[in-house]
Task: inverse folding
């Protein structure tokens, strides 16, 4: 691992993975020379790994209603949402909410 | 057939007919009650009198001791540390409302009745259908066509005849929610749609009742308890804005395994018992996510109460129940919500397609391969929606796409995904003859070929 890389983990649950090539866990190596926030991560995801119907994941610059975002198992709203600055080995989990029964 | 077995058949038929009539009567009685209440409210009569009277009727006796039968029946849970006689008595004196007698509601009701919950209320407007049996385990084959709450009631009384079961054969709405919910201590959200989830949340917040919320789809499940404890969030604290309708998948479209709903439903019963008895750590402020594919359970800490929540904060903006179907832009059922994306001239009805069938054309069936395997029309080519949207079709059908006149017809199960596909294809080929079939294979089966299987 180079010192210039920022390594983070992405996880998808309850169907969110279907929009990302059906892969539930990914390790990312991002350019470590720049600052990464959740906002810039979402842009990166849109450009690189969001394979299907982006409107089912994003709404404007943020995730659509009904998707929970957890950073290291903590609700992102408690951490500054889009402004949160990603740290090495952070785990970012996207959960789509289920409504069926 | 001999005389005796003919008689037996007649008896069975009469029984089933009577059950259906009873269910129909019950529904009418509930409609009448709703209307009378609405009438009393709007004509300025004492608005709560009907409710007060109803509550009075339902005032249940308070049990202070266990019978010998209770002790024998519940011995295995009575000896549980932390449960005991007091726990059993609390259950016996409790009333739990289960909203939705489907894949979640059946197992939840089953475990609550078996555990000795004194009073259960069951809410569902729907009738038992054949495609329910694989997961809605209280409904058995002979009860097809019966109302779900009646069917469940019969099965639950077989388990525990001393459980008092009240049937609410109706769709919950802003008018009847308070009068239905008021008599219960704990509410279980076993529903299958977004508007009902917001309605139950708001009503539970206003009435101060804990809401045990479960949901399931495909191989996944989720569970949490809302509106419990000083800091416990409500549904709106977590989801202030409803999801866009196109992002919501129901079990009828996405599929679900019965063992998944069974797992979550049983866990809802567990949380209800814990809330009633005061046992263990209730799943409030946490979300349990269950991934049945890998059999992984995971607990996530979710936010506590949102200080500016529209319903549960100190200064709520919402002070009365609203129109939840309007708020969510969705119907409060998991029945067909037909999309309307295309212009009429971009669509064929099933008879128009039937005429086209003998002429050269390309029929693209955009369902999942697992669905295509169940049934398909002759000459249909399976091209799942995902492969339309990622433009794989362009290369595969390059020769058919050369001519603008060559008819391309897109088909799916009910005529929603086919519209999404046609819209996407027309963005690239605006002048081509690309149309979908209105109502999809369901319409084909209903109107053209009754022998074509429906799923
Ligand atoms: Zn709230």
Result:
């Amino acid at each position: 691992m180079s010192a210039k890389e920022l390594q983070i983990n992405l996880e998808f649950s309850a169907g969110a993975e279907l929009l990302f090539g059906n892969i539930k866990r990914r390790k990312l190596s991002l350019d470590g020379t720049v600052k990464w926030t959740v906002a810039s991560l979402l842009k990166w995801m849109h450009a690189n790994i969001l394979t299907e119907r982006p409107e089912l994941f994003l709404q404007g610059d943020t995730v659509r209603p009904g998707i929970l975002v957890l950073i290291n198992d903590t609700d992102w709203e408690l951490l500054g949402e889009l402004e949160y600055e990603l740290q090495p080995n952070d785990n970012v989990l996207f959960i789509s909410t289920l409504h069926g029964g | 057939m001999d005389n005796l077995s003919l008689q037996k058949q007649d008896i069975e038929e009469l029984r089933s007919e009577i059950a259906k009539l009873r269910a129909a009567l019950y529904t009418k009685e509930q409609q009448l009650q709703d209307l009378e209440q609405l009438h009393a409210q709007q004509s300025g009569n004492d608005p709560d009198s009907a409710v007060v009277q109803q509550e009075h009727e339902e005032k249940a006796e308070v049990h202070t001791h266990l019978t010998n039968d209770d002790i024998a029946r519940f011995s295995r849970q009575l000896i549980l540390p932390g449960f005991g006689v007091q726990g059993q008595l609390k259950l016996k004196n409790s009333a739990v409302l289960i909203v939705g007698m489907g894949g979640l509601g059946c197992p939840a009701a089953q475990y609550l009745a078996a555990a000795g919950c004194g009073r259960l209320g069951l809410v569902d407007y729907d009738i038992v259908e054949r495609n329910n049996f694989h997961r809605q385990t209280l409904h058995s084959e002979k009860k097809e066509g019966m109302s779900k709450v009646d069917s469940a009631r019969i099965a639950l009384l077989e388990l525990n005849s001393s459980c008092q079961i009240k049937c609410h054969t109706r769709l919950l709405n802003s008018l009847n929610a308070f009068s239905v919910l008021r008599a219960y201590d704990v509410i279980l959200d076993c529903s299958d749609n977004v508007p009902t989830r917001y309605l139950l949340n708001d009503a539970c917040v206003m009435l101060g009742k804990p809401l045990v919320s479960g949901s399931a789809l495909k191989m996944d499940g989720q569970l949490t308890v809302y509106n419990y404890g000083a800091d416990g969030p409500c549904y709106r604290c977590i989801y202030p804005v409803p999801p866009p309708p196109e992002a919501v998948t129901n079990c009828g479209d996405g599929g679900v395994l019965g063992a998944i709903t069974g797992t979550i439903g049983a866990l809802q019963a567990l949380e209800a018992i814990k809330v009633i008895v005061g046992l263990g750590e209730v799943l409030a402020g946490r979300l349990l996510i269950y991934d049945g594919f890998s059999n992984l359970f995971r607990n996530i800490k979710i936010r506590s109460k949102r200080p500016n929540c529209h319903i549960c904060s100190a200064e709520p903006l919402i002070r009365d129940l609203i129109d939840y179907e309007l708020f969510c832009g969705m119907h409060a059922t998991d029945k067909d919500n037909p999309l309307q994306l295309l212009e009429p001239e971009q669509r064929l009805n099933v008879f128009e397609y039937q005429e086209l069938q003998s002429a050269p054309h390309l029929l693209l069936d955009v369902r999942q391969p697992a669905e295509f395997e169940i049934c398909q029309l002759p000459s249909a080519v399976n091209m799942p929606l995902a492969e339309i949207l990622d433009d794989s079709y362009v290369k595969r059908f390059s020769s058919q796409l050369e001519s603008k006149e060559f008819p391309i017809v897109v088909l799916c199960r009910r005529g929603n995904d086919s519209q999404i596909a046609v819209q996407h294809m027309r963005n690239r080929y605006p002048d081509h003859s690309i149309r979908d079939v209105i109502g999809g294979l369901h319409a084909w089966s209903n109107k053209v070929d009754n022998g074509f299987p429906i799923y």
